[in-house]
Amino acid sequence: DTCKMRCALPSPGVRVSTSGRATRERRLRSLHVRCSSSSDQTATHVLTFVTGNQGKVDRLRLAMSLQAGCASFEVDGIDLALHEIQADTVLEVALAKAKSAHEILQRPLLIHDCGLCCAALKDAPGPYTKYFNFTVGTAGLLALMRDQQDRRAGWDDAIVYIDANGHAHSFSSLDRYGYTGEVSLTGPIKPLRFEGPERAIGRCFVPTSFGLTECLADVSEEDYQRYRREAPNVWNDFAAWYAARETETS
């Protein structure tokens, strides 16, 4: 049966007081992404990204920078301690966190969550990827997949954007692109990235749909950056939608 664990590691962040909507916010480095503009008078669009992960802020910055347009975007990262529900899909978790963050901040914002889904494990670990990283690890996942013929896997990247009217707009890579790779038979050989237990599961992923045959942790820096820029992903999907939306309403 599908692995349904009822435990998860607490997300790092700043403890938030909910009384009177009082919050403590830790602002990450603000990232200004300047797209091509035909006018110096173009207004800046501030996108609030609720995350304590600088890597995610950088990833959104990259996606936004690839969008041509007439607007200037500022990505404002804010770290909040949000309750993470137990759910069967990554999108459900992201949606709940986005709604919770919106209740606190009362402004448009973005939430991202992700998990690795393995077809042979009925899409586990999925929303429990963080738990798997610290308890099952690379060797544990490879052991679970040892006798599996179906090695298909994909990252369920979910982005939820809450607009000024409180409406949620969701983007899910697994729903749109399905399984985009597989779990390696051996794991990474000489990993160049994804160090630390928090990336243990990701080290096993091979993005075969992008034409790569090694674990993403092993590929050259050139191939890795090309994958980040060009592979179909929810980051680019959101950035294109957001840029078009802001251009239409400006």
UniProtKB/TrEMBL annotation:
GO terms for cellular component: cytoplasm. It comes from the Eukaryota. Pfam families: Ham1p_like. GO terms for molecular function: nucleoside triphosphate diphosphatase activity. InterPro entries: ITPase-like_fam, RdgB/HAM1. The keyword Hydrolase applies. Keywords: Hydrolase. Gene3D superfamilies: 3.90.950.10. GO terms for biological process: nucleoside triphosphate catabolic process. Belongs to the HAM1 NTPase family. This is Non-canonical purine NTP pyrophosphatase. It comes from Micromonas pusilla (Picoplanktonic green alga).
